Description:
This protein has about 525 residues and is α/β, with parallel strands linked by helices. About 50% of the residues lie in helices and about 10% in strands. The chain starts with 6 loop residues before the first helix and ends with a helix. A 6-stranded mixed sheet has the order 1-2-13-12-10-11, sandwiched between helices. A 5-stranded parallel sheet has the order 6-5-7-8-9, with helices on both faces. The structure holds 6-O-phosphono-beta-D-fructofuranose (F6P). 6-O-phosphono-beta-D-fructofuranose (F6P) binds near residues 150, 151, 207, 265 and 484.
Amino acid sequence: MPIDQTQEWQALQSHHRTVRDLRMGDLFAGDPERAKRFTLSLGDIRLDYSKNRITEETMTLLRHLAHAADVAGWKERLFAGASVNTSENRPALHTALRQRGGSILVGGKDVIAEIASVRGRMAKFAGAVRDGMWTAHAGTRITDVVHIGIGGSDLGPRMVVEALRPDTAPLRVRFASCLDDAELTSALSGLVPASTLFIVASKSFTTPETLANAILAKNWLLAALREESLVKGHFVALTSKPEMAQRFGVDPANIYPMWDWVGGRYSLWSSIGLPIALALGPEVFDDLLAGAAQMDEHFRTAPLEQNLPATLALLSVWYANFFAAETQIVLTYDWRLRLLPAWLQQAAMESNGKSVDRDGTPVRWATSPVVWGGSGNDGQHAYFQALHQGTHLVPADFLVALTGGPHRRALLANCFAQTEALMRGQDAAEVGPHKAMPGNRPSNAITFERLDAATLGALLAMYEHKTFVEGAIWGIDSFDQWGVELGKVLAARIEPELSPDGRIGIHDSSTASLIETYRRRGR
Ligand code: F6P
């Protein structure tokens, strides 16, 4: 039965009518235990969701909805390696990448053993490069690594490296994703070819952006090293298509495989995490995985009432489907986490930005909200105005580490104050219409002791599972991404039309005029 036809959905609709005008301020005033009542924790990660437009009954009804959508069944299938990616008929086993021990069979093979073997190779390689024991050619120590990949083959490792990068490290690791060669050129500035290692990360090894950048990198090396055979040693590939990487010219010994049951946006835990092991050390990569595994275990076993990812998902559904909130913001009060929203945009929107259910029937309910955000403190001086006084309801997640000296205390004060200001608002009768703030704007406060690898791993897994629960409730396939394909096909068609002698095909007048304007300039 479509989810919006269930009793549970309809009960939430009528409940919404009774609570939508409640003021959170009144709810706090009427219940001194409210913060405690609506706070969950796992280790030192604490989710205070009391500043939401909810009552106990709201949460109960949302949990009933989760039962109606068989979230428990989908969760079991996810962890067991069943084909939860229904449109592509394959499992989504990012949790297996973090699992220690046990076994999971896919196509008769134990993937846990395969994962352990690749992880062992990665750790050995990363350790050797960091120690200067592994050299590309002529015994020159590697000082710089340039990671080339896009989407899931870039956002995850880039964000983790930025978040945990130590002040001093044996290797400098940079990233380039975009087709605009300005990015790779900038990453290469000041680098010495003989001591630079390139990682080409592409699950499919067909992504045009990544291949074009890999060719640029190859030419940059060739110009200095002069011999193809020398260039080979400077490339490592991370891919589920090793034969294609080999065809590109990567030594089989330098290829680290991944599997088609790892979704691109869930792949930082696989060999795609190699730049993390190189930049931060293999033991830090292990800690990241261990933190994620802890969240997996919590998500798998904790009842809905205590389940952090499920609670975040239920709140998300509450606002998206009952308050018609179209966006959600993630605000990191930790500068090092500023790339988290970019990673999360892919994790959430590529997963749940769908309009048909698993059977291909159009859905009548909203799916993924638009996810946006950034460094919260910087945002205060830019877009927070709209959060406080704009016409849109934008549920917010605030993330902050509690550790730090007096300088950070001011940052923490700002973070806490923003959650209070959004909730409290300011009365027009007291301050006049221009300064009035409606308040009653919801937020989650996610705090943790310090931003270390284990905590980061747990936070990322928390958001992955939040996305999964949302998708289960919306009845969609959270693991395919067919919507990205048409643009790729059209770009491949238009590219030859941009060359001076290319034949321009049939287009609408706008696209045709873009192509012609470009071509006229070239003449
Ligand atoms: O175009 C979207 C996408 O397929 C993402 O899902 C993926 O993370 C990204 O491109 C990169 O793909 P690949 O790792 O195959 O190069």
